[in-house]
Design brief:
With 532 residues, the protein is mostly beta strands. 3% of the residues lie in helices and 75% in strands. It has a domain of 164 residues. The protein has one helix and 44 strands. The strands form two sheets. The protein has a 42-stranded parallel sheet that branches. It has a two-stranded antiparallel sheet with strand order 27-28.
């Protein structure tokens, strides 16, 4: 036998053995096109197309990759590229104008794309080992210009991404760079969008959105961060950004019945540091309200182990009738707003608001500060500024048209403000350390002002009735002041303490009482009691 012929035969046998690939193709319909390219060993491809003008492309390199493509309908496109070992791809499309693009590079990655309906598009890119991506889209977009789209990109090892979408202009974009990250996106209908970016290891992002407009964006940079967003109906927007390790952010937003031109519910959380926690719960009941349904929460935490909790509930229940540009009809209110800013470590802020036209601002600069705000009613406003360490502020307001401002500058100061009724105004300023202030007002249009400058001063103000006014100013250390005014109103009290360890007590009851106390020096004591 010719030596060259023998060598050629042996080479052909060797190549055939090395490239022991399997490809199966089944097509039914008109103008379908399928291209399968296999280079390597033990790769498997199975393509089934039913309908017209479908296009399937499979490219496999290296070893033991598996691709299954099924397309039923017209004008569908599938492109699968596998470069690596033991990767698995499944594309199942039923409908018209569907598109799937899968690119796997690495080892033992799994991609599953299932699309039904019309005008949907899915893209999956995996580079690494043991990554898994599942994309399910079920529903119709309006036109080819408004496709349902889902994009998943995974770089690293053992990342998991699950995207489940229904219909209309829905869009999801999930990027994972690192190891063992998990992203789950579940979306229902209309205009919804979601973007998730995770860079690091063992981060978890979970997004659940129900219907109408709705948008969510989650960015996590670091390790073991957790972000959860749940949004139910109408306009709702949530942005979460976490930079550090073991941070946790949870947002739950829900609106009630049908609302026109709804632009309500919005939450933005920004955490930089480690082990910070933020929880936002927002809801409102809307009954056909036009305009002015706006609930907002903004949380910013910088440092470690800070905690912020916001709960807001509003209602838009036909409060008025004049509607701009639409003549007469229901005009709803709500407009709740909460803003928390924390810089330092181990700070805690808790805000609870129920009603309409309510606003709260909390700023904490330092360590181990505590601020609580509880507001229930209409047209309530609270401001808290804490600069220093170990300060505590508690504000509680119920009724209508109250305003409270608390400024603490120093360490270990304590302020407690409680206002009920209508039109109460309170201002507390503490500059120094270990000062204590208590303000309680009930009735109508009472006014209280407290200034403490120094250390270990104590002030207590209690007013009931209508139109009472109290002013307390303490300069020094260890001063004590107590003001109690009751009755039908018209009370006026002024207390000035300048020095150390002064004590003043004012008690007024009845109508049109007036008291002025001025103490300058040390160790003075004064008591004023007035009755009917």
């Amino acid at each position: 036998m010719n030596i060259s012929l023998l060598v050629g035969c042996l080479m052909m046998v060797t190549i055939g053995f090395a490239q022991n690939n399997t490809s199966a193709l089944s097509q039914s319909g008109n103008d379908n096109n399928s291209t399968v390219t296999q280079k390597g060993d033990l790769n498997t491809s199975d393509v089934m197309q039913t309908g017209d003008d479908n296009l399937a492309t499979v490219s496999q390199k290296k070893t033991e990759n598996d691709a299954v493509t099924s397309q039923v309908g017209d004008d569908n496109t599938s492109d699968v590229m596998q470069k690596g070992t033991l990767n698995m791809s499944t594309v199942d499309q039923a409908g018209d104008d569907l598109s799937a693009d899968v690119d796997q590079d690495g080892r033992e990655n799994i991609s599953t794309v299932t699309q039904t309906g019309d005008f949907a598009e899915a893209t999956v890119y995996q580079d690494g080992k043991f990554n898994e991506a599942t994309v399910t889209q079920d529903g119709d977009a309006l036109t080819s210009l408004g496709k349902n789209t889902a994009d998943v990109m995974q770089e690293g090892n053992r990342n998991l991404a699950v995207v489940d979408q229904d219909g209309r202009f829905i869009d999801a974009d999930v990027d994972q760079v690192g190891n063992r990250n998990t992203a789950t996106v579940s979306q229902d209908g209309e205009f919804i969008t979601s973007e998730s970016l995770q860079e690091g290891n063992r981060n978890t992002a979970t997004v659940t959105q129900d219907g109408t407009v709705l948008s969510s964006e989650i960015d996590q940079l670091g390790n073991r961060n957790d972000a959860t967003v749940t949004q139910t109906n109408f306009d709702a927007s949530s942005t979460i950004y976490q930079d550090g390790d073991r941070n946790s952010a949870t947002v739950a937003q829900n609106s009630g019945a049908v609302s026109l031109f709804d632009d309500g519910l919005n939450s933005e959380i920004d955490q930089i540091g480690d082990r910070n926690t933020a929880v936002v719960t927002q809801s409102y009941v809307s009954q056909g309200a036009l305009y002015e349904v706006d609930i907002d929460s903004d949380i910013d935490q910088e440092g470690d182990r800070n905690s912020a909790t916001v709960s807001q509930t509003g209602s838009a229940e036909l409060d008025g009738y004049l509607v701009p540009f639409f003549g007469f009809g229901p005009y709803g209110e709500a407009t709740l707003e909460s803003d928390i800013e924390q810089t330092g470590d181990l700070n805690e802020a808790v805000v609870n608001q129920v009603g309409d036209e309510i606003e709260s601002d909390v700023i904490q600069l330092g360590d181990e500060n505590l601020a609580t705000v509880d507001q229930v009613g209409v047209e309530l406003n609270s401001f808290v500024l804490q600069s220093g360490n170990g300060n505590e502020s508690a504000t509680s307001q119920s009724g209508a048209s109250h305003g409270s401002g608390v400024v603490q500058w120093g360490d270990g100061n304590s302020s407690d403000v409680a206002q009920m009724g209508v039109g109460q105004i309170s201002g507390v300023a503490q500059v120094g350390s270990m000062n204590t202030s208590t303000v309680s007002q009930d009735g109508e249009a009472n006014l209280s002002g407290v200034l403490q400058w120094g250390d270990s001063n104590m002030s207590a103000v209690s007013q009931t009735g209508t139109g009472s006014m109290s002013g307390v100013a303490q300069f020094g250390e260890g001063n004590m002041s107590t003001v109690t005014q009751g009755g039908d109103g018209g009370h006026l009290s002024g207390v000035l303490q300048w020095g150390d360890n002064n004590m003043s007590t004012v008690s007024q009851s009845g109508m049109s009482q007036t008291s002025t106390v001025s103490q300058i020096g040390n160790g003075n004591m004064g008591a004023v009691t007035q009755g009917n």
